[in-house]
Design goal:
Blueprint (H helix, E strand, L loop, with lengths): L1 H11 L16 H22 L17 H23 L6 H11 L15
């Protein structure tokens, strides 16, 4: 089930960037932040589907070996920040460009969701 959840996350969060590498500075703020914020909803659904509980990760050290709850929680923190940025953007406040670029790089491209299956030990 965990492998299928990872595949579903990848399908649901397809960034539709046409193969470009992050940061996606040629896209509008709404598109860029929307890509990041969409992760939060997808990860909440994924956690519910598997019965995993998302937890705050700041200042914590995950157990070794980490499980799906820890994996999803770590990625969720970035998506949740995207939701915060979107609310700020809707009030006219621009988010920090460097932070948006870091989130885009974390969620797309090499070493990101394409490699999540490496999380499994088998």
């Amino acid at each position: 089930m965990e492998r299928q959840v990872i595949k579903d996350i990848g399908a649901a969060t397809n960034p539709l960037h046409g193969g470009r590498m992050a940061p996606f500075t040629e896209d509008s703020w709404h598109v860029r932040i929307g890509r990041i914020a969409n992760w939060a909803g997808v990860l909440r659904l994924a956690a519910r589907s598997g019965g995993w509980v998302l937890r705050p990760i700041a200042g914590g050290i995950p157990p070794n070996p980490a499980g799906m709850a820890e994996l999803l929680s770590g990625i969720y923190a970035v998506g949740e920040q995207g939701e915060i940025w979107m609310r700020q953007l809707l009030t006219g406040e621009l988010p920090p460009e460097d932070e948006i670029a870091k989130a885009e790089g974390f969620l797309t491209g090499p070493g990101s969701v394409e490699d999540l299956e490496l999380f499994f030990y088998d």
